[in-house]
Design a protein that fits this description.
Length: about 260
């Protein structure tokens, strides 16, 4: 999208935030509270000498902050669009997308930004910078970490896009839009604590555990290049499927006008 479109989206998002500032503040406050509860839980689960599945306390805290960073980045750009898209499809309110000089696929889910998630992201990044100090890192490691963060965000986006697009055919599946957020709770646990069959299922069939465990494994110097490549290819394949589903879904779309 062109820069002026993003400028318009940012302006509209700020106006919405100012109009609903009380609700936005409560959303931000609750997100911050739950984030710090998860951090506190890490100190409860782990003593300085405790290991769970080879993970120390700081490793677990990195996992929590990484999960939050991925979630907040997704929320900033896509959560509002995905929450509204199913309703717009069912009520035939997508017409304006087809007369805009940009892709309807992207415009449908990037019409607003979630401002509270930007603030939450800053909090999570600050916590991550604090915990990451105990690791010996270089630019290559940080590059791999950020790449895996990006892949995780893309995975969340394309899976939610596919689930929401099912509304083109069925009107009772709007609840699927929150399924990935619920499954992501698995990602807040080290992969090694699960039985082997669960590890394989949620690493290579539905790679929820790879979303957050891979970036954290990079910082722990324990990641496998094959898993990174597999996750990237898997996500790329889902993106192509999401474009195909969107294209075919538009053929089933019925305008309210």
């Amino acid at each position: 999208m062109k820069w002026r479109i993003w400028k318009s989206i940012w302006t509209q998002s700020l106006e919405s935030f100012s109009i609903y500032k009380t609700a936005s503040f409560l959303t931000l406050l609750l997100a911050a509270v739950f984030f710090f509860i998860e951090i506190l839980a890490g100190y409860v689960y782990f003593s300085p000498a405790t290991q769970i599945g080879g993970w120390h306390r700081n490793d677990y805290l990195l996992l929590i902050t990484t999960t939050s960073i991925i979630t907040y980045i997704y929320n900033i750009f896509f959560i509002n669009g995905h929450e509204e898209l199913s309703e717009k499809i069912l009520e035939g309110e997508l017409d304006y997308l087809f007369v805009r000089p940009t892709s309807s696929y992207w415009l449908a889910i990037t019409s607003t930004l979630d401002i509270p998630s930007i603030i939450s992201l800053v909090i999570a990044i600050c916590a991550q910078l604090w915990f990451i100090q105990s690791y010996a890192l270089n630019w290559l490691t940080l590059g791999w970490y950020l790449l895996n963060i990006l892949i995780g965000v893309c995975f969340l986006f394309v899976t939610n896009q596919i689930m929401v697009s099912i509304s083109f055919w069925f009107d009772g599946f709007s609840a699927l839009g929150g399924l990935m957020e619920d499954l992501l709770d698995l990602g807040t646990r080290p992969r090694q604590v699960f039985p082997r069959i669960i590890q394989l299922l949620f690493s290579f069939v539905l790679p929820i555990l790879l979303i957050t465990n891979l970036p954290t494994a990079v910082l722990m110097n324990g990641f496998k290049l094959f898993e990174v490549l597999y996750f990237a290819v898997f996500t790329g394949g889902l993106y192509l499927i999401s474009r195909l589903v969107w294209s075919h879904g538009l053929r089933h779309y019925a305008s309210a006008n």
